[in-house]
Sequence to fold (188 residues):
Amino acid sequence: VGGIAFETPASDPAAPPAEPNTTFTLFATRADAFRPAARDPQTYVLVFTQSVRGLAVGAPVEFHGIHIGEVTAISPQVDAQTFAFTVAVTIQLDPARFGVEVKDLAVPPADLVAAHHRLVDNLVARGTRALLKTGSLLTGALYVSLEVIPDAVPASVDWSHAPPRLPTQSGQLEAIEANVASIIKKID
Fold:
């Protein structure tokens, strides 16, 4: 409701004036305009060995059905030693949407990074893994789901990479595809 205000923050360097009739794109969609801005976005990489067909930049990252982030990049990679093909999916998470507020960590600002690492390490130790899930059977769109897998193979966060790598697990997609292929073969 209302107009759009422009302001030049005192902390920003002076920029040249805009040319006449310059277009200023504020948001690509209405949904983007009303989405709350991430307060302290955290970037992670997920490495999948399965097909990511249907996953797109901007796809949601969810935890128990709650939107906590989005996919920001997808890039294939080949290991020069083993020639194994994987796909690196970069995601950005908003800890506040995940239910973690800075004040809840009850640590001085200097210890905030270490507290964040402990929190993520604890979640992963308890079985939190990233999986690809089908968002729409009609379109084949995928999204990333962070889920607690009770019997997950022990794993840890690889903090040596920038951005850090979170562990992944193959989802049910491959099993469903194999079952459908088997049924089609039997019918044939």
Summary: The radius of gyration is 21 Å. The longest strand covers residues 66-78. The beta strands are 42-48, 60-63, 66-78, 85-93, 128-134, 142-148, 165-166. The mean pLDDT is 82.
